[in-house]
Amino acid sequence: MQRIAMQLIFALILLCPGLASAAQEPKALPLPDGRYKVDILLVVAHPDDEGAATPYLARALDEGKRVAVVFGTHGSSGANEAGAEQAAALGDVREIEARNALATLGITNVWFLGGKDTASQNVLQSLANWGHGSSLEQLVRIVRLTRPEVILTFLPGTFIGEDHGDHQASGLLATEAFDLAGDPTAFPEQVAGPMKRLEPYLENLRPWQIKKIYYFADADREDIFRGKGPRYSVKDLSKSTKQPYWRMALDSFRSHQTQAKSFLDTIAAMDEAQLEKLVTADGGWTDELQFVLGKSLVGGSVTGDIFDGVTPAAISFARPEVSVEPARPELSVELAGPWSFYGEFRRAHGLTNLPHPEPPEIALQAPGTLVIPLWIRNRTAKAQEVTLTVSLPAGWTAQYGTGKFSVAAKQVAASRIEINLPALAENAPRKSEAQEVTVHAESNGQNVGDLKLRVELRKRALPQ
Ligand SMILES: [Zn+2]
C-alpha cells in the first residue's frame, strides 16, 4: 500500500515538471521595512527644536530626500500657553504638536526617546535625568530601523547661548549612536535573528553605519563655526510650494500652540507683507543655517553640500579613531565637569576638529553663583599641597573653595570654587560683556595651573 502511494507521488512529480521546480524555488527572506528608510535623521531634544533645521529639511524634501526626526523628551516642562495641561499631560500634547509640525512638511517618521526635561546647562545632568543607557539604546535602535545616510543634531559643547543641557545631550547621544549603530557588538540583541517565530526578545535589525554627521550650535557666537561646514539660505524658494523655506518653517511652527500661542495668534492676523517685515526684523527666522561637519566616512568637502560624497550603497562599520590623551604634568589642576568631559569626548569620537571656545565660556543669571568644578591630579608618589586662588572682576567674590588643599599620593581629587555673582544694574542690557575669571593653582611656590573662564552675566539664564 505504502509502496503504491510512493510510486504514485513519484509519477506525479515526473509528469508535472512545474511542481518539481516549485519545490526548489528559494524562499524570499524578509528584508528591512522600506517605509522607514531615510536619508536624513534629525536628532533634537524638545518639541519645537526641530525648527533649528526645518528650513533645510524642507529643501532636502524638495530634492526627494526622506527624513525622520527623533526627540529626546516630550517637552513636559515649561508654561502652557494654550491650556491648563501640565507636566506629563503637557508632554502628551507636545508630542502631537511636534508630529503635526513635521507633518506639515510631509514628515511622519517621528520618534521619542522618552527622556525628561532638565532645566540646566550641564549636559551630564541631562544624561543622568534622561537615563543615558536606555536613551542611547533606543537611539541606536532607531538608527538601525531608519538607516540614515546623514545625521543632523545639536553640537555637543558648552557655549554662551541658550546652551541647554538637553540640546547638548541630543547631540552627544547622536554622536555615540553614529559610532555604535554599525557595530555588531553594540546592543547585539538588536541585531540577532529570531530563534523561532514570534520570538519576543531578539529584534532582527541589521547593524547600520551612518556616513556623515553634521551639527548646529546652540551658541550666540558664530565666528568659530564659519568655514566648518555648509551654509544654506532660508530665503530660497521651494520648488514644490513656491514659498521661501523660512516661510515653510514658520507654517510648520504654527503647531506649537502650547509653547507660543501669543506669538502665533499675532502672526495669524498678519498679511504676507506684515509677516515678512516681522520675521526680517526678528532675524532668527531668516538667518542662514550654518552646519558644522562632525565626521564624514565618505569624503566630500567640509563646506560642500551635506550629501557631497554620499552614494546609495551601504558602507561597512568604521570603528572611531581615538586620539591619544595629552601628556599631563605630575601635578595638575584642570577644569572638571562638562568642560573636561567634552575634551575627552572629542578625543574618544574622533572629533578633535570640532569648534569649541577657548577659554571656555558660560552665561549665568545674576545675582547668582558660578561653580568652577576642578580636578586636582597628583601622580607623584607623595601627598602634595596645592593652593588655589582666584582673580575676579570687581564686585565678584569667592565664597567657597579657595585656600590650601592636600591631595594624597597617586590620587585625583574633585574640588570646586564657588563665586558670588553681583546683581546687574536695573537699567543694564539683557546681556553684558563676558568677563574673565582665572583660577591660579600653586604648589611649593610653583605654578601648577592657570585656568581661565569667560563668564557673561544675564538677567535670565538656565541654571549652571
Ligand atoms: Zn529645546
Can I get a quick summary?
The chain is of the alpha/beta class and 464 residues long. The protein has helices spanning 2-15, 17-24, 54-62, 87-103, 123-130, 132-146, 165-180, 245-253, 257-268, 272-282, 337-348, and strands spanning 40-44, 67-73, 109-115, 150-154, 212-216, 231-232, 289-290, 292-296, 331-335, 361-365, 368-378, 384-391, 397-400, 403-407, 411-421, 435-443, 446-458. It has eleven helices and 17 strands.
Secondary structure: elements and pairs:
Blueprint: H1 2-15, H2 17-24, E1 40-44, H3 54-62, E2 67-73, H4 87-103, E3 109-115, H5 123-130, H6 132-146, E4 150-154, H7 165-180, E5 212-216, E6 231-232, H8 245-253, H9 257-268, H10 272-282, E7 289-290, E8 292-296, E9 331-335, H11 337-348, E10 361-365, E11 368-378, E12 384-391, E13 397-400, E14 403-407, E15 411-421, E16 435-443, E17 446-458
Parallel strand pairs: 1-2, 1-4, 2-3, 4-5, 10-17
Antiparallel strand pairs: 5-8, 6-7, 9-11, 11-15, 12-14, 12-16, 13-15, 16-17
The structure holds zinc ion.
Radius of gyration based on Cα positions: 27 Å
Unreliable sequence segments: 10-15
Distance between the termini: 87 Å
For the residues shown, what is the average pLDDT?
93
Order of neighbouring strands in the sheet with most strands: 3-2-1-4-5-8
CATH architecture heading of the largest domain: 3-Layer(aba) Sandwich
The first-level CATH class name of the largest domain: Alpha Beta
Beta-strand portion reads 15-25%
Provide the structure class.
Answer: alpha/beta
Largest sheet: 6 strands, mixed
User: Based on CA inertia axes, which overall geometry fits?
Assistant: globular
**What is bound: which ligands?**
zinc ion
- Under CATH, the topology of the largest domain can be stated as Rossmann fold
CATH superfamily of the largest domain: LmbE-like
Tally the structural domains: 2
* Overall helicity: 25-40%
Number-wise, the strands total 17
Order of helices and strands: HHEHEHEHHEHEEHHHEEEHEEEEEEEE
Q: Helix segment count?
A: 11
